[in-house]
Amino acid sequence: MRPTGVRTGRAGRLGRWVARARLSSLRTTFTVSFAAVAAAVTVLVGFLSYDAAARLVRVDQQTVFEGVVQDLLDEVRRKPLETADFATTRPDGGPRGELVRPGGTVVQVLGPDGAVVDRGRTPLPVDAADRPVAAARTAGRLVEHRDVDVGDDVYRVATVSLGGGRGAVQVAQEFSGTEDLLRDLQQRTVLLVGAVVIAAGLFGWWLARRITSRLVRLAGAAEDVARTGRLAIQVPVAGYDEVARLGRSFDRMLGRLAQSEDDQRRLVQDAGHELRTPLTSLRTNISILRRMDELPPAVREELVDDLAQESRELTDLVNELVALAAGQSGTEPQRRVALGDLADDVAVAARRRTGRAVTVRVSGDTVADGRPAALQRAMSNLVDNAAKFDRGGSGPIELVVTRADRDTVRVEVLDRGPGIAQEDLDRVFDRFYRAPDARSLPGSGLGLSIVREVATAHGGEPFAGRREGGGSVTGFTVTVTG
């Protein structure tokens, strides 16, 4: 049978391959989409540009030809002309020169019978429609032929009568050259569109690879966490776009999970250490119970008192651990809480439980978003702590709730007990910490650490100090949101 580690390794490699394949598919989709959009835009722009250019060239050439024909009509209608006036042998060019000059127009002269009497540089065809025009008595009679094939070229031909049966003049404009130019332009446009599409595809592939490469690294980090269970993995993050935000959020999530795991581990270790002492004492006393009949009455009574005291301490320790774990889980929903009203409830319960005088002072707006049960537990722990250390009852315990500023509500408990030693101020909120003077007193060392957890969960912080005139001041702050 193959080792489990081999199967796990292959499964991990398969999972990474599947993730890369999906990201590659995303990369391909992005590349194809980018190229398709670029192709659509380029084809549209190319088609519109070619159509506009072709239309402009054809219209311009047609306008030039129509202008030549109109000039010829005006000329023959203004004065009588003979075919000799359009002869190629005239040294001054005559009317023929005026017609040939714009756009390289071809001119051919027909006799009264429709026969060609003077050819131009390109012989033009004469059909049955041209002969009546040559014999026409009216000057300026016109017949126009479109797309006439002359050899390998295409011409547009117009025949204009000279009138009086003196013949006619044919003018022609070559259009095939223009069409060849437009076909060449069309081919160049197609090649340009193809080049742009290829370039867009390459650029899209490069851009998709650049974007998805960070997703690949992020997916690799997630797979490493799932495969190894280790949360202390560095997540590669670069840039400020959505992918970078995702990476930072994932990194913060891993950090929170790692911190939570570390807190749970330390809680279990510390709890195990603290539980060991009362459990050992219980086991010792229980073993002595086997010889209960041999013990003097005074020793029996002391043994029973020890068992009761140790049971209470063990119960308190377990309750504090449960409360601390529940506070860390943060399952209680948040809502608007009036901390002043919570302080009144805590004071009533503390008077009944301890028999001490507890006064409450509320100043300003003390409403904040929070978890009522957790906040009430934190206040109760502060009041109980003050009552425990102020054993002489030299003064009332004061529970003060004030609006410190626009964003902070301050909760503090003041007593007239022995106060907190200077060297203990920085550690009183540590988990399971008990000052040397307090080690003979009942308690688990978790009460003030719960206060710190509650304060941190509500955006505040705990504080402790010595009170002027004797005693101590302990408390926490809550950040006001909304």
Q: State the distance separating the first and last CA atoms.
A: 61 Å
Describe the sheet with the most strands: 5 strands, antiparallel
Radius of gyration: 51 Å
Helix content: 55-70%
Low-pLDDT segments: 1-12, 438-444
Provide the spatial order of strands within the biggest beta sheet. Answer: 2-1-5-4-3
Any idea what the shape is?
rod-shaped
* String of helices and strands: HHEEHEEEHHHEHEEHEEHEE
Strand content: 15-25%
Q: Mean pLDDT, nearest integer?
A: 77
Structure report:
The protein has nine helices and twelve strands. It is of the alpha+beta class. β3 (142-150) and β4 form a beta hairpin. It catalyses: ATP + protein L-histidine = ADP + protein N-phospho-L-histidine. Its EC number is 2.7.13.3. Residues 270-482 form the Histidine kinase domain. GO terms for molecular function: kinase activity.
Feature tags:
rod-shaped; EC 2.7.13.3; histidine kinase; kinase activity; disordered N terminus; HisK_dim/P_dom
Topology:
Elements: H1 4-78, H2 94-100, E1 106-110, E2 116-118, H3 130-134, E3 142-150, E4 153-161, E5 168-174, H4 176-228, H5 242-289, H6 297-329, E6 335-338, H7 339-354, E7 358-363, E8 367-370, H8 372-389, E9 397-405, E10 408-414, H9 447-457, E11 462-466, E12 472-479
Helix pairs in contact: 1-4, 5-6, 6-9, 7-8, 8-9
